[in-house]
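Record filed below.
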Amino acid sequence: MTEQTVPRGTGLGIAAELAFSLMLIAFGCLCIDTTVPEVINFMVVEYLDSALYSQIVGAMLVCSGLYQGVMAVRRRAEPRFVPLSMLLGLVMTAIYILGFAYVGFYVSTFVFLFGYSLLIEPPDERNVVSKALFAFISVAVLYGLFSVFKIYLPTTWLF
């Protein structure tokens, strides 16, 4: 009989999956402003701005949360294995979101992408230089896109 190695983790049932779905929906609702008529004006007259961007992201989060909740109920969500790296990724995502307000979007995004890409790679395949380059190029592309579409981010104490 061969012994299989099981990565460390925890089992999550339907309650945890529904709680996660509700958190997605709640965060999505926080992203959606009450300025829907102004958004239609932005879409027709002006460039895409940060309010519309957050509303699009919020709508995607609400849809994703609803989908996850429905799928959890449909399959009756037997406890299934969730690796610790996934749970750590969830914590990193929460810290990343908080980092927007204090550190700034670009610095937070760089640190998050770099850290998360290291987290999801197996330890023997990690290449720190390529992960840092990936994070830097991703942030540069976001900066370029935000500049083209005139999406202005709030100023923070760092950037």
DSSP finds six helices and two strands in the chain. Strands lie at 9-12, 80-83. The helical segments are 14-31, 36-44, 50-74, 84-102, 105-120, 128-148.
